[in-house]
Amino acid sequence: MGGDRAPSSAVQGALLALETDEDLSIDLVGREGDLRDVLGDREHPRLFIHHAPEVLRSDEPPVKGARSRPDSSLHTCLSRLLSGEAQATVSAGDTGALLAAATMVLGRLRGISRP
After folding, report:
1. Is the CB of residue 52 less than 8 Å from the CB of residue 27?
2. pTM (2 decimals)?
3. Helices 95-106 and 73-83: crossing angle, nearest 10°?
C-alpha cells in the first residue's frame, strides 16, 4: 500500500508479472476495497487479495509506525512470510518501516546484532 502512486503501480506490476510468468501467483496485501477499486473487473486466477486494514504512513517515524500498526499491510506480508504462506515479500513502501517491521516480525539471523 506504500510507494509512489500506491496501490495502482503495485497492482499494475503484479498483473504484468502474472502475464510474464505462468508459474507465479501473487498475493496483494492491503486495504481490500482500495485494491479492488484499482483492479476493477480485471481478475486473475493466480491473484489473491488479503485484507490488511492499516497502512504505515510515510510521514511518521518508521519504528513508531511499525510498532503501532500490527494490522498493517507490511506486518501482514511479513507474517505470511514467517508462517510459510508466502515465499517472498516485495514492498514499495518506506524502507525504514520495512527494516523496522522485518526486524520485529522476522527477527535477526543468529550472530547478527544489527540489521
Report:
1. no
2. 0.89
3. 40
